[in-house]
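Risk register update: the risk that structure generation would not scale has been downgraded. Supporting records follow, first protein first.
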Amino acid sequence: MKNRISNMKRTPDSTMKSTSTKLLISISVILIAMVIANSSLMAQNYSNVATQSVMLEVKPIAKISVAGSPDPLIINAGVSESISDENTKYSLVTNVDNMKIVASIDNPMPTGTKLMVKLSSSKASSAGLVDLSNALTPLDVVRGIGRGSDVDQSISYTFAANDGVDDIAAQSRMVTLTLTN
Protein backbone atom coordinates (compact mmCIF):
# COMPACT_ATOMS: atom_id res chain seq x y z
CA MET A 1 0.00 0.00 0.00
CA LYS A 2 2.91 2.27 0.72
CA ASN A 3 4.16 1.76 -2.79
CA ARG A 4 0.73 2.47 -4.10
CA ILE A 5 0.50 5.84 -2.35
CA SER A 6 3.87 6.97 -3.61
CA ASN A 7 3.04 5.95 -7.13
CA MET A 8 -0.14 7.95 -7.12
CA LYS A 9 -0.15 10.97 -9.36
CA ARG A 10 -0.57 14.29 -7.69
CA THR A 11 -3.65 16.07 -8.68
CA PRO A 12 -3.90 19.84 -8.98
CA ASP A 13 -6.13 19.75 -5.93
CA SER A 14 -3.41 18.13 -3.79
CA THR A 15 -0.80 20.69 -5.01
CA MET A 16 -3.17 23.50 -4.13
CA LYS A 17 -3.69 22.05 -0.64
CA SER A 18 0.10 21.87 -0.16
CA THR A 19 0.56 25.51 -1.23
CA SER A 20 -2.34 26.61 0.95
CA THR A 21 -0.83 24.80 3.91
CA LYS A 22 2.53 26.53 3.37
CA LEU A 23 0.84 29.91 3.08
CA LEU A 24 -1.18 29.26 6.21
CA ILE A 25 1.98 28.32 8.12
CA SER A 26 3.78 31.50 6.86
CA ILE A 27 0.90 33.75 7.89
CA SER A 28 0.75 32.04 11.30
CA VAL A 29 4.49 32.65 11.84
CA ILE A 30 4.11 36.35 10.88
CA LEU A 31 1.11 36.78 13.20
CA ILE A 32 2.97 35.13 16.09
CA ALA A 33 5.96 37.46 15.49
CA MET A 34 3.65 40.49 15.47
CA VAL A 35 2.01 39.42 18.74
CA ILE A 36 5.40 38.95 20.38
CA ALA A 37 6.65 42.34 19.11
CA ASN A 38 3.45 44.07 20.20
CA SER A 39 3.57 42.55 23.66
CA SER A 40 7.19 43.75 24.07
CA LEU A 41 6.10 47.27 23.01
CA MET A 42 3.29 47.16 25.54
CA ALA A 43 5.74 46.05 28.19
CA GLN A 44 7.65 49.32 27.56
CA ASN A 45 4.55 51.42 28.36
CA TYR A 46 4.13 52.95 24.91
CA SER A 47 1.13 55.18 24.40
CA ASN A 48 -0.25 57.56 21.81
CA VAL A 49 1.60 60.49 23.45
CA ALA A 50 5.36 61.09 23.61
CA THR A 51 7.29 63.99 25.14
CA GLN A 52 10.82 65.31 24.68
CA SER A 53 12.96 67.98 26.29
CA VAL A 54 14.31 70.55 23.79
CA MET A 55 17.27 72.78 24.81
CA LEU A 56 16.95 76.42 23.66
CA GLU A 57 19.42 79.31 23.84
CA VAL A 58 19.93 82.72 22.25
CA LYS A 59 23.55 83.84 22.28
CA PRO A 60 24.60 87.49 22.20
CA ILE A 61 24.65 88.91 18.67
CA ALA A 62 26.95 91.80 17.76
CA LYS A 63 27.63 92.16 14.03
CA ILE A 64 28.92 95.10 12.04
CA SER A 65 29.72 95.42 8.35
CA VAL A 66 30.96 98.13 6.02
CA ALA A 67 30.05 98.79 2.39
CA GLY A 68 31.89 100.91 -0.13
CA SER A 69 35.44 102.22 -0.18
CA PRO A 70 36.66 105.72 0.52
CA ASP A 71 38.22 107.59 -2.37
CA PRO A 72 41.95 108.32 -2.03
CA LEU A 73 42.44 111.25 0.34
CA ILE A 74 44.99 113.46 -1.48
CA ILE A 75 45.95 116.94 -0.33
CA ASN A 76 47.40 119.19 -3.03
CA ALA A 77 49.90 121.73 -1.71
CA GLY A 78 48.51 125.25 -1.62
CA VAL A 79 44.96 124.10 -2.46
CA SER A 80 43.67 122.62 0.79
CA GLU A 81 44.82 121.52 4.21
CA SER A 82 42.20 118.77 4.57
CA ILE A 83 39.99 116.54 2.47
CA SER A 84 37.00 114.40 3.41
CA ASP A 85 35.19 111.40 1.96
CA GLU A 86 31.75 109.99 2.76
CA ASN A 87 31.54 107.06 0.30
CA THR A 88 31.46 104.38 3.00
CA LYS A 89 28.48 103.10 4.98
CA TYR A 90 28.16 100.74 7.91
CA SER A 91 25.35 98.57 9.22
CA LEU A 92 25.01 96.74 12.51
CA VAL A 93 22.71 94.40 14.37
CA THR A 94 22.75 93.44 18.05
CA ASN A 95 20.52 91.86 20.68
CA VAL A 96 22.57 93.38 23.53
CA ASP A 97 21.93 96.75 25.21
CA ASN A 98 24.52 99.51 25.76
CA MET A 99 26.88 98.56 22.93
CA LYS A 100 29.38 100.88 21.28
CA ILE A 101 31.55 101.08 18.18
CA VAL A 102 35.26 101.61 18.66
CA ALA A 103 37.81 102.44 15.96
CA SER A 104 41.55 101.91 15.71
CA ILE A 105 44.28 102.26 13.08
CA ASP A 106 47.06 99.78 12.22
CA ASN A 107 49.96 102.30 12.07
CA PRO A 108 50.40 105.87 13.34
CA MET A 109 50.02 108.67 10.80
CA PRO A 110 53.10 110.56 9.57
CA THR A 111 54.15 113.58 11.64
CA GLY A 112 52.06 116.65 10.92
CA THR A 113 49.09 114.67 9.50
CA LYS A 114 45.81 113.43 10.96
CA LEU A 115 43.27 110.80 9.95
CA MET A 116 39.89 111.42 11.54
CA VAL A 117 36.64 109.46 11.34
CA LYS A 118 33.02 110.27 12.09
CA LEU A 119 30.26 107.65 12.18
CA SER A 120 26.64 108.76 12.06
CA SER A 121 23.95 106.80 13.90
CA SER A 122 20.18 106.94 13.95
CA LYS A 123 19.97 104.80 17.11
CA ALA A 124 22.84 106.03 19.29
CA SER A 125 25.20 108.91 20.03
CA SER A 126 28.06 109.68 17.63
CA ALA A 127 31.30 110.89 19.22
CA GLY A 128 31.69 113.29 16.27
CA LEU A 129 35.03 113.65 14.48
CA VAL A 130 37.52 111.35 16.25
CA ASP A 131 41.29 111.62 15.61
CA LEU A 132 42.65 108.12 14.84
CA SER A 133 46.18 109.33 14.00
CA ASN A 134 47.78 107.41 16.87
CA ALA A 135 44.83 105.21 17.85
CA LEU A 136 46.58 101.87 18.02
CA THR A 137 44.18 101.11 20.89
CA PRO A 138 40.47 101.53 20.07
CA LEU A 139 38.63 104.83 20.65
CA ASP A 140 34.87 105.23 21.06
CA VAL A 141 33.17 106.56 17.92
CA VAL A 142 29.50 105.66 18.67
CA ARG A 143 28.04 105.07 22.16
CA GLY A 144 24.75 103.87 23.65
CA ILE A 145 23.68 101.40 20.96
CA GLY A 146 20.62 99.41 22.01
CA ARG A 147 19.04 96.23 20.70
CA GLY A 148 18.10 96.27 17.04
CA SER A 149 19.79 97.37 13.85
CA ASP A 150 21.24 100.54 12.38
CA VAL A 151 21.48 100.25 8.60
CA ASP A 152 23.37 102.26 5.94
CA GLN A 153 24.85 104.82 8.32
CA SER A 154 27.56 107.09 6.90
CA ILE A 155 31.25 106.95 7.67
CA SER A 156 33.18 110.15 7.03
CA TYR A 157 36.98 110.12 6.78
CA THR A 158 38.96 113.35 6.97
CA PHE A 159 42.66 113.61 6.21
CA ALA A 160 44.44 116.79 7.33
CA ALA A 161 48.02 118.00 7.02
CA ASN A 162 49.82 120.95 8.63
CA ASP A 163 51.19 123.69 6.34
CA GLY A 164 54.79 122.67 6.86
CA VAL A 165 54.42 118.97 5.91
CA ASP A 166 56.66 117.89 3.05
CA ASP A 167 55.53 115.55 0.31
CA ILE A 168 54.45 112.16 1.62
CA ALA A 169 54.36 109.18 -0.74
CA ALA A 170 51.03 107.40 -1.12
CA GLN A 171 50.27 105.22 1.91
CA SER A 172 47.28 103.43 3.31
CA ARG A 173 46.00 102.74 6.81
CA MET A 174 43.72 99.95 7.95
CA VAL A 175 40.89 101.28 10.10
CA THR A 176 39.17 98.67 12.26
CA LEU A 177 35.63 99.19 13.55
CA THR A 178 34.48 96.93 16.37
CA LEU A 179 31.01 96.58 17.86
CA THR A 180 31.54 95.84 21.54
CA ASN A 181 30.20 96.51 25.01
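Supporting record for the second protein:
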Amino acid sequence: MPLRLTGQQLAVMRLLWDCGELTVADVQERLHSSPKPAYSTVATILGRLEKRGLIQHRQEDRTYFYSAAVSETGVVKDFVDRIFGGSTSELVSHLLDSRDLPLSELDRIKQLIRDYEKTRKPLKGKSRK
Protein backbone atom coordinates (compact mmCIF):
# COMPACT_ATOMS: atom_id res chain seq x y z
CA MET A 1 0.00 0.00 0.00
CA PRO A 2 2.23 2.85 -1.16
CA LEU A 3 1.08 5.86 0.79
CA ARG A 4 1.60 9.32 -0.63
CA LEU A 5 -0.63 11.81 1.12
CA THR A 6 -0.90 15.57 0.78
CA GLY A 7 -0.68 17.62 3.97
CA GLN A 8 -4.47 17.98 4.10
CA GLN A 9 -5.02 14.28 3.47
CA LEU A 10 -2.62 13.38 6.27
CA ALA A 11 -4.34 15.86 8.59
CA VAL A 12 -7.69 14.20 7.82
CA MET A 13 -6.25 10.73 8.41
CA ARG A 14 -4.85 11.85 11.77
CA LEU A 15 -8.26 13.21 12.76
CA LEU A 16 -9.93 9.92 11.86
CA TRP A 17 -7.29 7.91 13.72
CA ASP A 18 -7.68 10.12 16.79
CA CYS A 19 -11.46 10.64 16.77
CA GLY A 20 -12.77 7.47 15.16
CA GLU A 21 -15.84 8.39 13.18
CA LEU A 22 -16.52 11.88 11.80
CA THR A 23 -18.85 13.61 9.36
CA VAL A 24 -17.64 16.03 6.69
CA ALA A 25 -18.71 18.93 8.93
CA ASP A 26 -16.83 17.41 11.90
CA VAL A 27 -13.64 17.13 9.84
CA GLN A 28 -14.04 20.66 8.52
CA GLU A 29 -14.48 22.02 12.05
CA ARG A 30 -11.47 20.16 13.46
CA LEU A 31 -8.96 20.93 10.70
CA HIS A 32 -6.50 23.52 11.95
CA SER A 33 -5.70 25.17 8.66
CA SER A 34 -6.10 28.79 7.76
CA PRO A 35 -8.28 29.60 6.00
CA LYS A 36 -10.66 26.81 6.99
CA PRO A 37 -11.29 24.62 3.93
CA ALA A 38 -14.72 24.71 2.29
CA TYR A 39 -17.17 21.91 3.04
CA SER A 40 -16.92 20.76 -0.59
CA THR A 41 -13.11 20.63 -0.35
CA VAL A 42 -13.29 18.41 2.73
CA ALA A 43 -15.87 16.18 1.01
CA THR A 44 -13.53 15.86 -1.99
CA ILE A 45 -10.58 14.92 0.23
CA LEU A 46 -12.67 12.29 2.01
CA GLY A 47 -13.91 10.92 -1.32
CA ARG A 48 -10.38 10.58 -2.65
CA LEU A 49 -9.17 8.87 0.51
CA GLU A 50 -12.11 6.48 0.34
CA LYS A 51 -11.44 5.72 -3.33
CA ARG A 52 -7.89 4.74 -2.34
CA GLY A 53 -9.24 2.40 0.35
CA LEU A 54 -7.77 4.38 3.25
CA ILE A 55 -11.11 5.34 4.77
CA GLN A 56 -14.66 4.01 4.69
CA HIS A 57 -18.09 5.38 5.45
CA ARG A 58 -21.44 4.34 6.76
CA GLN A 59 -24.64 6.20 6.05
CA GLU A 60 -27.23 7.22 8.60
CA ASP A 61 -30.19 8.94 6.98
CA ARG A 62 -28.49 11.50 4.70
CA THR A 63 -25.30 11.80 6.74
CA TYR A 64 -22.06 9.95 5.97
CA PHE A 65 -19.85 8.98 8.90
CA TYR A 66 -16.24 8.42 7.86
CA SER A 67 -13.65 6.28 9.64
CA ALA A 68 -10.14 5.04 8.89
CA ALA A 69 -9.96 1.75 7.02
CA VAL A 70 -6.25 1.38 7.79
CA SER A 71 -4.60 1.76 11.18
CA GLU A 72 -1.96 4.33 11.93
CA THR A 73 0.26 1.50 13.15
CA GLY A 74 -0.21 -0.33 9.85
CA VAL A 75 0.75 2.75 7.87
CA VAL A 76 3.89 3.27 9.96
CA LYS A 77 4.81 -0.42 9.65
CA ASP A 78 4.35 -0.24 5.89
CA PHE A 79 6.58 2.85 5.76
CA VAL A 80 9.34 1.18 7.80
CA ASP A 81 9.07 -1.98 5.68
CA ARG A 82 9.29 -0.09 2.37
CA ILE A 83 11.86 2.56 3.26
CA PHE A 84 14.05 0.74 5.81
CA GLY A 85 13.55 -2.89 4.82
CA GLY A 86 11.61 -3.52 8.03
CA SER A 87 14.60 -2.58 10.19
CA THR A 88 13.66 -0.47 13.19
CA SER A 89 17.34 0.10 13.96
CA GLU A 90 17.85 1.56 10.46
CA LEU A 91 14.92 3.92 11.06
CA VAL A 92 16.31 5.07 14.41
CA SER A 93 19.80 5.43 12.94
CA HIS A 94 18.42 7.56 10.12
CA LEU A 95 16.51 9.80 12.54
CA LEU A 96 19.55 10.25 14.79
CA ASP A 97 21.84 11.02 11.84
CA SER A 98 19.49 13.35 10.00
CA ARG A 99 18.59 15.88 12.70
CA ASP A 100 19.92 17.62 15.75
CA LEU A 101 18.02 16.16 18.66
CA PRO A 102 17.58 18.17 21.82
CA LEU A 103 18.87 16.32 24.87
CA SER A 104 15.30 16.07 26.17
CA GLU A 105 14.30 14.12 23.05
CA LEU A 106 17.30 11.83 23.35
CA ASP A 107 16.50 11.21 27.02
CA ARG A 108 12.89 10.40 26.06
CA ILE A 109 14.06 7.88 23.43
CA LYS A 110 16.37 6.21 25.96
CA GLN A 111 13.50 5.99 28.45
CA LEU A 112 11.23 4.43 25.83
CA ILE A 113 13.88 1.79 25.12
CA ARG A 114 14.33 1.05 28.85
CA ASP A 115 10.56 0.73 29.29
CA TYR A 116 10.34 -1.53 26.26
CA GLU A 117 13.12 -3.79 27.56
CA LYS A 118 11.35 -4.17 30.91
CA THR A 119 8.07 -5.31 29.39
CA ARG A 120 9.14 -7.13 26.24
CA LYS A 121 10.40 -10.71 26.31
CA PRO A 122 13.19 -11.41 23.80
CA LEU A 123 12.37 -13.74 20.94
CA LYS A 124 14.28 -17.02 21.09
CA GLY A 125 17.00 -17.29 18.47
CA LYS A 126 16.10 -13.99 16.82
CA SER A 127 17.64 -10.60 17.11
CA ARG A 128 15.37 -7.62 17.47
CA LYS A 129 15.06 -5.25 14.57
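The longest strand covers residues 55-60. On this basis the risk owner (M.S.) recommends closing the item.
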